[in-house]
Design the sequence.
């Protein structure tokens, strides 16, 4: 089956720093999704990418759909304490697909 | 209004018991799912239903039985609970690729 490698597994940063995380796949995806999970809650969609090369921003978050369609990255600029959580990438084939989730990047931001 | 709501939020039970988790979505989505998140936070698909019909059944013990009385509800019944069933279970729904998750049910089997 498809596998997603998400890295880094965890990050400990100071408030104000920029953050970058990425996912790579052994297969081509038609869709890349980035989710954030707060403690005790379910994942919430941050950014959805539907086209190779697409670069999309949502506030301080920016995500890109890799040209090869096998990777995606998420950047967070000027991190703040409420950015703490687990970030998941998910790749899908479009339509009624079941996305494949990465194993998550745990982000801790020190004030 | 909560888009995808699941109950209970927490469930502590003894080994061997049977328990159910309920899920309801008010988004009008056609497809609903159950995911299991283990202690390492890995999200694993268990079941997927489209318009009340089972379309995905991953390698899950048959002690787990989903039931969808209508397309807005997908409940999960678990028989003969085992210690290894302890996890957070998430319900989700989707339409045209947009996924919405519930807030999870933390199941602890003692």
Sequence:
């Amino acid at each position: 089956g498809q596998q997603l490698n998400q890295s880094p597994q965890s990050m400990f940063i100071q408030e104000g720093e920029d953050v970058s995380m990425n996912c790579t796949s052994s297969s081509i995806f038609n869709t890349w999704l980035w989710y954030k999970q707060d403690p005790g809650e379910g994942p919430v969609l941050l950014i959805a990418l539907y086209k190779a090369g697409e670069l999309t921003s949502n506030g301080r978050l920016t995500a890109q759909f890799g040209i090869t369609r096998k990777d995606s990255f998420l950047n967070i600029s000027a991190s703040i304490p409420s950015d703490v959580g687990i970030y998941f990438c998910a790749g899908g084939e479009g339509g009624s697909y079941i996305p494949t989730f990465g194993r998550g990047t745990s982000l801790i931001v020190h004030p | 209004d909560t888009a995808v709501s699941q109950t209970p939020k927490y469930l502590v039970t003894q080994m061997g018991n049977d328990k159910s988790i309920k899920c309801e979505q008010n988004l009008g989505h056609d497809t609903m799912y159950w995911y299991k998140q283990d202690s390492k936070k890995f999200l694993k698909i268990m079941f997927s239903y489209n318009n009340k019909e089972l379309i995905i059944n991953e390698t899950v013990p048959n002690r787990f039985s989903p039931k969808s009385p209508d397309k807005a509800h997908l409940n999960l019944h678990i028989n003969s609970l085992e210690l290894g069933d302890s996890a957070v279970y998430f319900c989700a729904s989707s339409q045209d690729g947009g996924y919405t998750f519930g807030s999870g049910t933390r199941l602890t089997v003692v």
